[in-house]
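User: Round two. Same drill as before: sequence, then structure, for each protein.

Assistant: Same drill it is. First protein:
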Amino acid sequence: MPAADVSPGGGVSGTVLARGVSQESLHLGAEGATDVIVRTITLAPGGSTGWHYHPGQLLAVVTSGTLTRTLEDCTVEVTPAGGAFIEPSGARNRHIGRNLGSEPVVLYLTYLLPKDGPLSVDADAPPCAGD
């Protein structure tokens, strides 16, 4: 049994909530007082997050379905179940997440936000989106 799965002291249990693989290096950071929030989001088939940005970074793991994100410059990133990525902070990193598939997209998210800040901020679509 791997060392991480045992506790010499006993009386400890754990559950892996989500596991994903990033195809790129991940770099997380926060300065000052930071709220760390963990939550799940489910996007129904045909669902959308709307254009928005986050005031802090977040780490996302896709556990079901395929998430399609359109970024500020209208490039598209597709992340299937088992994938992980970081969303950078700030208005210059607005994006929209869509479920273009036939099954729900389930995300496990860890937010690193300025203390008492919102999870996200609604934003207008960039000119290149034509929305």
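Second protein:
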Amino acid sequence: MTGSVLSIGMLTACTSAYDVEDVAYAGDYGSHPPLAVVGYPSTGSLGITQQVVWRIADGKVGELASLVADKEAKGVPEKTAENWIAAFGKGARGKVTAEFYDEGSLRQEVVLYLHETGQVKQIQVRATRVDNKDVWRVTMDEPVPEQATAVHPWVPKKPGELGSKTVR
């Protein structure tokens, strides 16, 4: 009996199935309402969309701005993050449905439906390289509040109305 307990203890002490990012994700996932999903996200597009909603809900400007796809855009991501948090923070803390449009291997249009406030927010997420690693990021180019809250004419009022296909 002692030998088997010792073996299990040594096995678990020597292997780590989770890294810091996994632990942070698990903490975020457990402390936010679940994100309802419509359409066909990739693992990457779903992950970045969850992070965007969570950072808006938490009111974390710096952490939201750090998710920007274009690292060269000076000041714009921070202002965009401030606008998104001011406009959508309350709704992001409640039930949110994310509809993923079209195929999402490299980029994807995502429409967020914030049910408590009745708001709709369209974002674009895309794969990029950061520090020689493939990651997903969000386009953040809405430094004017009116840009942040504008709804594109093609965006439906309810999830699923277009079958998760953009109108071209």
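The beta strands are 35-39, 96-101, 107-114, 119-130, 133-138.

User: Perfect.
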